Write the structure tokens for this entry.
Amino acid sequence: MLVGGTPFRTVWLEGSTVKLIDQPKLPHSFGIVDMPTHVHTARAISTMIVRGAGAIGATGAFGMAQAALQSPDQGFHETIVAAAETLGRTRPTAQNLFYGIETVLKAIQAEGDNIHQARQAAVAAAQAVADDDAACCEAIGRHGEPLIQKGCRLSTHCNAGWLAFVDWGSALSPIFTAHRGGKKVFVWVDETRPRCQGARLTSWELTEECVPHAVIADNAAGHFMRTGQVDMVIVGSDRIAANGDIANKIGTYSSAVVAKANGVPFYVAAPTTTIDKDCPTGDDIPIEERSPDEIRYTWGWSDDGQFTRVRTTPVDGPARNPAFDVTPAELIAGIITEKGVVPANPQGIASVWRS
Ligand code: MRU
């Protein structure tokens, strides 16, 4: 997507350096940071310099390519397996991360003892993961756009825009496509405490694309649905179970329940790389729990231009911070994938998953 007229992806490889958009600084400043080794890349994933299912999937893949390029011939395969473990320990919920790492690991291992070829295969496989993610998200836009009526007032949670993928995004891709086609949409953006991906990132993306929108407190979403001001919800997903249950950013379940109670169709948009065939139901999806400090503190720019952290709870007040929740399949009107819109049930999921 364009930033100030220049096309950007969220992550790419230059030589053996992984380049990332510095997401914690957005929307206040736009910059690129360099990750010189796969250990730095892993840390960028766990500290959420890069975040969002597809984006961390591609970053994990590029981290593997980086490890292949930088590992000595001696003990090459042992080093690569250790790198896969390091990258895989960063965040537990998004299926795309494991897809990205494993795709590159298999490409390396398929070359056996030809280390030179293994390095080339790693770079090609990582680039293919990133390109596929971007192409899937563009196709999600095409498949999801017909669901959006002219003048539609949508609601979304967290950031499932292009910053959460390599390009285009999942939930925002049909919205961008509808907007570019002149459908005059409006988007209610849940701020998405505690890390405010909606307030910081989704609103920034929509502003860059000139899509009319308003950021609302998470607990205002029910009010706007009950008073008939929301026609449709589209959210992303970090992992889809075989029965159609989905995990997404904490607060998604509440939005789905309120949507159901008010007859508002609730759609999930995700590439098929988010499906975990080995996960029978949502109860089997590992839910990341992050530091309670993300609840105790909030941060942003003060009006005098300082990047500031402020505490909103008593000092060391007890807090819990699950990063994701599960929305059961029965609350979901459909899953928008790069292969089309499918029902959130075992047959629908099995009709699109990758072999
Ligand atoms: O914790 P994050 O920011 O990595 O969470 C991922 C997300 O952005 C959301 O859950 C999103 O809606 C789905 S991932 C594209």
About this structure: Residues 51-53, 158-160, 164, 170, 197, 235-238, 248-249, 323 surround MRU (CB under 6 Å). The chain has a mean pLDDT of 97. The domain at 2-138 is CATH 1.20.120.420 (Four Helix Bundle (Hemerythrin (Met), subunit A)). DSSP finds eleven helices and 18 strands in the chain.
